[in-house]
Amino acid sequence: MRESQTKGARWLGAHRAEVRAATRAVVAALLAYAVATLAQLPQPYWSVIVSLLVVQATVGASLQTSLDWLIGTIGGAVYGSLVAALVPHDDPYLVILALFIALAPLAFLAAVNGRYRIAPMTAVIALIVPRGPEVGAIAFTLERTAEVGIGALVAAGVSLVVLPSRAHSLIAEAVANVLEALADLIPRLAADTAVARPNEAALVDEFAALRAKMSTLDAAAAESRRERRIRLSEDPDPAALVMAVVRVRNDAIMVFRATSAPFPEPVEARLSPRITAVAAAASAHLRSLARAFGTRAAPPPPSDVQTAVAAYAAEVDAIRAEGLMRDLPTETVERLFSLGFAVDQLGDNLVTLVDCCGPYARPPVRRPTAAPAA
Q1: What is 167-360's CATH topology?
Q2: What is the mean pLDDT of residues 367-373?
Q3: Whole-number pLDDT of residue 131
Q4: Chain centroid offset of residue 332 CA
Q5: Which has the closest alpha carbon to 140: 45, 44, 132?
Q6: pLDDT in tens, 194-208
Q7: How far apart are CA 33 and CA 47, in angstroms?
Q8: How many CB atoms lie within 10 A of CB 318?
């Protein structure tokens, strides 16, 4: 019994976002139907349908979608009603003409700006949906607009009140997924000998999964920007954060390329543990940073990474001072310089990533600005 309860709790924990979204959708649909019925609207199913379409993953997305539906519904209904009143459409050929006049500009508007995509639909409803002789065109348009408006407003209200999901939860999960993936990959990508390196063909799927996680992060960043535009979030613009994550990923790939083959001895034996130390420190730091970002804690400084990078740089300087690089092939020297650049960039970009995560903490953590020179 206890084991089944534990499995159920794990399942709920893994599908928490889906459960919250489903709960909001059900509550919105039920409330929309109740409100439309109490308002004695003839077709309350429009309110239910719209509420289900408007409820989104986050509060900001729901509010934006609700506003788009209201604008598109009112505009499409008004224009469709004008066409219905001015263009006779009592036979199929005239109906085709009226549909062309109604849909041509609205379809173009929807293609130019997706927020008006509902306008052509509401114009068609106002134009050709049967309404009975006792219902006038204006009354019919007002009823449909009210039904759609109730569904949109109820969905927006439910998104604000019932288990509200903010963009930070999405972006925190997306950032954590990318950083955890990089933490797994970096030690493998920095493998320092051809024997220890992973099969490059086997990494194709992992890189594809990483790209998918980066796409999810981009989508979460777009949601965060939407909440910022409507003043629902005080978080900073996520563009710098996303770019910092991209740079760390690129640094890992540069290290991977620079260590494509073992270096000649004794350079290999001396650099190998330094490369491994940098990769291990970077991996541990990325995991800590992912946990801190998700809980809005102060991000840890990459002190261990900087220590490992400094040790690597000191070892390279010692190898150069001892003249061990003089007889190396040009291609090997180029790879050594590329590796040194990639390691330096990884250390610097992890500092930048920490700086980008700091403003998301509560209270925010920002790097102090340097005092101006006297």
Answers
A1: Methane Monooxygenase Hydroxylase; Chain G, domain 1 (1.20.58)
A2: 49
A3: 57
A4: 40
A5: 132
A6: 445 556 666 777 788
A7: 6
A8: 11
